[in-house]
């Protein structure tokens, strides 16, 4: 068994107002997600009840964490194979199956990375890097829903001048 690493996050509800949870609609879902020494993330509920759409939702941060871990594992895998990556963008989506209480489990997450390489790379070689990174993605491995990676065809940085 490997070493254990612990992560501590503070979630502080800031939406009590003067009435607290007197009723389902009486309180704000606003809260802050903090990690010591870092700026707070302003967050809220995904539901339409008293939700501030300018704030992050737990579901968005969840999908972002899966995508972020995939990117970091991909960059590590590429570097280990001598492949130079100069750009990486992912537009990730997750689907939640709404059940009782207007909530439910995520049924799948799809990552769609668009990677720019310094030199040409075959789609097959790029696909192997993506798959190696997916297998290593510790956050994706911790989930009960599938995480699929659907990379765009490899792009090569245009050398100007």
Descriptive account of the structure:
- The protein is of the alpha/beta class.
- It has two domains: 1-54, no CATH class; 58-156, GMP Synthetase, Chain A, domain 3, CATH 3.30.300.
- It is built from three helices and ten strands.
- A hairpin with a 6-residue loop joins strand 2 and strand 3 (41-44).
- Helix 1 crosses helix 2.
- The longest helix is centred in the middle third of the chain and has 23 residues, at 58-80.
- 19% of the residues are buried.
Number of strands: 10
Structural class: alpha/beta
- The Cα radius of gyration reads 20 Å
Number of helices: 3
Question: What is the CATH first-level class name of the largest domain?
Answer: Alpha Beta
* Annotated CATH architecture of the largest domain: 2-Layer Sandwich
- Annotated CATH topology of the largest domain: GMP Synthetase, Chain A, domain 3
Please trace the helix and strand order, writing H or E for each element: EEEEHEEEEHHEE
Largest sheet: 4 strands, mixed
Ranges where pLDDT stays below 50 over 5 or more residues in a row are none
> What number of domains?
2
The 3D shape can be described as: elongated
Question: Mean of the pLDDT scores?
Answer: 91
End-to-end CA span: 52 Å
Enumerate the strands of the largest sheet in spatial order, edge to edge or round the barrel: 1-2-3-4
CATH superfamily of the largest domain: K homology (KH) domain
| Approximate strand percentage | 15-25%
Question: Could you estimate the helical fraction of the residues in percent?
Answer: 25-40%
């Amino acid at each position: 068994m490997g070493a254990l690493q612990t992560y501590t996050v503070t979630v502080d509800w800031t939406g009590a107002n003067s009435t607290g949870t007197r009723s389902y609609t009486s309180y704000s879902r606003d809260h802050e997600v903090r990690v010591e020494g870092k700026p707070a993330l302003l967050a809220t509920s995904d539901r339409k009840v008293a939700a501030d759409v300018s704030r992050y939702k737990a579901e968005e941060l969840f999908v972002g964490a899966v995508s972020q871990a995939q990117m970091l594992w991909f960059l590590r895998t590429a570097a280990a194979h001598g492949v130079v990556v100069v750009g990486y963008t992912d537009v990730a989506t997750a689907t939640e199956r709404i059940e009782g209480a207007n909530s439910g489990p995520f049924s799948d997450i799809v990552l769609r990375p668009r990677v720019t390489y310094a030199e040409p790379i075959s789609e097959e070689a790029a696909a192997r890097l993506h798959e190696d990174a997916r297998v290593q993605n510790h956050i994706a491995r911790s989930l009960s829903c599938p995480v699929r990676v659907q990379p765009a065809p490899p792009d090569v940085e245009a050398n100007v001048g």
